[in-house]
């Protein structure tokens, strides 16, 4: 078997301190098939051991590099190359990011005491601000390969920011963090370091919070493809509010027919934000603009809005109707099919436009789902009538089974309550909905279920309990004939 690893001994550089063994060299000349065969021949225990061993060697090799960097900084090699600092020199030498180079130089000089033998506080790197930091315990742990460079970065940042009146505790703080770094990931270690700062430097922690607040920003712009791009940096308090509000709305949906939620984390977060916006726009506490609650305005030709998709009884592909509506908020266009979905449950404001697209007459707005009908739908259907939906309480949307633009009445027997996701699913995939014995029944399209098996929906517990108790309290001779139960997810 071709050996997977071979040790290399490196002669220590003068002034660089003790140099650990370098990362074992891989026999790159060996054919790929040889390596595959060698790896596959390892037992599970050997494979786990080798992975951990390689990680340890990588960390040890990184510590060797840090000591070499410290010696290069002591010799001020960057001046020979005509650059202003060691980190700039290192960035060019290794082709790495500037921040990465800065971190390596900072940690190198802190974990190698001999890097500044003069004893003065001159900043030779041009990268490390603040008082000089010595991290012997961190260097020892790095050399042993039990912590990584990211752990060291967290420790260095915490110790270097200690105020003068607690600098005598720097060694104690470092040892505490190193001890925890052996069993915590860098992210968890950073939380502990944060707690140390709040304990030993309360004034500095408060100043950090104020600086974060002053650095807050949120930008949004419409990309060329019409999607809205959002970039934000939020202070801790606002960030916590955002996460608290978004997390339950972005949770994975429960499995249906043993099918997991196929959305990515990013897609779930985007859907959660959409639901969060629905909640905000539906509340009376939102500031009014021009005397009106915030609302979404869509302008579309009436004929285009009325055009339906061609009926396809087999549930296969559908051809979209032509035309477009314009979202007044962003100036972007959306299809009539999307407008029909939005218009299922909204304020409808009839407006007559002249040939020059200027308003000629404006009618009175009408809500397609009045309060009393919405309340009844919630009692009958719950937060969402779609089979298997576990949507949290929020702002459900009232869906017309026969759309009002097609003459469908705004009544309890022509509407169901759907969450935003399943409202979109119903429109996009053309699920057939009907009411049977007052309860909604959903039939999937053939491309999702060739058998098109009906699935019962609606799950509001009061209505379910009432139906069950009514059945129990009805004499056998008065009960309707037994019918096979509908399929349920």
Automatic annotation (TrEMBL):
Gene3D superfamilies named in the record: 1.10.30.50
Alphabetically ordered keywords of this record: Endonuclease, Hydrolase, Nuclease
Biased composition (Polar residues): 109-126
Assigned protein family: Belongs to the Rv1128c/1148c/1588c/1702c/1945/3466 family.
GO molecular function: endonuclease activity
Region listing for Disordered, in residue ranges: 109-132, 441-489
Descriptive protein name: HNH endonuclease
Domain (HNH nuclease): residue spans on this chain: 372-424
Record's signal peptide: none
Biased composition (Pro residues): 477-489
Species in which this protein is naturally found: Saccharopolyspora kobensis
């Amino acid at each position: 078997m071709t050996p997977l690893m071979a040790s290399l001994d490196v002669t220590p550089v003068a002034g660089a301190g003790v140099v650990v063994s370098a990362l074992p060299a891989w026999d790159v000349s060996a054919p790929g098939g040889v390596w595959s065969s060698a790896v596959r021949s390892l037992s599970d225990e050997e494979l786990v051991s080798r992975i951990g061993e390689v990680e340890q060697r990588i960390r040890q090799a990184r510590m060797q590099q840090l000591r070499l960097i410290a010696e290069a900084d002591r010799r001020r090699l960057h001046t020979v190359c005509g650059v202003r600092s060691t980190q700039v020199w290192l960035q060019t030498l290794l082709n790495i990011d500037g921040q990465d180079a800065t971190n390596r130089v900072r940690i190198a000089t802190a974990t190698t005491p001999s890097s500044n033998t003069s004893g003065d506080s001159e900043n030779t790197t041009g990268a490390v601000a603040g008082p000089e930091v010595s991290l012997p315990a961190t260097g020892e742990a790095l050399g042993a390969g039990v912590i990584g460079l990211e752990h060291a970065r967290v420790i260095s940042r915490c110790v270097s920011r200690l105020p003068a009146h607690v600098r005598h505790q720097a060694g104690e703080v470092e040892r505490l963090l190193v001890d925890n770094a052996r069993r915590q990931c860098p992210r968890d270690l950073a939380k502990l370091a944060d707690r140390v700062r709040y304990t030993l430097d309360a004034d500095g922690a408060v100043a950090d919070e104020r600086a974060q607040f002053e650095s807050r920003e949120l930008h949004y712009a419409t990309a060329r493809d019409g999607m809205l791009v959002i970039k934000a940096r939020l202070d801790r308090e606002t960030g916590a509010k955002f996460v608290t509000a978004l997390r339950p709305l972005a949770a994975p949906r429960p499995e249906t027919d043993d099918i997991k939620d196929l959305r990515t984390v990013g897609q779930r977060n985007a859907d959660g934000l959409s639901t969060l916006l629905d909640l905000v726009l539906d509340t009376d506490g939102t500031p009014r603009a021009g005397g009106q609650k915030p609302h979404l305005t869509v302008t579309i030709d009436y004929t285009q809005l009325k055009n339906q998709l061609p009926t396809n009884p087999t549930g296969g592909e559908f051809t979209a109707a032509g035309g477009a509506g314009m979202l007044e908020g962003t100036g972007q266009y959306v299809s009539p099919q999307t407008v029909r979905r939005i218009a299922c449950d909204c304020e409808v404001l009839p407006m007559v436009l002249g040939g020059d697209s200027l308003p000629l007459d404006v009618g009175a707005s009408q809500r397609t789902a009045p309060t009393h009908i919405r309340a009844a739908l919630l009692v009958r259907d719950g937060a969402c009538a779609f089979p298997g939906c576990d949507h949290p309480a929020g702002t459900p949307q009232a869906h017309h089974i026969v759309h009002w633009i097609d003459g469908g009445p705004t009544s309890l027997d022509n509407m169901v309550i759907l969450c935003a996701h399943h409202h979109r699913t119903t429109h996009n995939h053309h699920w057939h909905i009907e009411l049977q014995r007052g309860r909604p029944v959903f039939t999937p399209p053939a491309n999702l279920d060739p058998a098109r098996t009906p699935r019962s929906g609606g799950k509001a517990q009061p209505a379910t309990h009432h139906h069950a108790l009514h059945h129990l309290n009805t004499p056998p001779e008065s009960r309707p004939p037994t019918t096979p139960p509908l399929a349920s997810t």
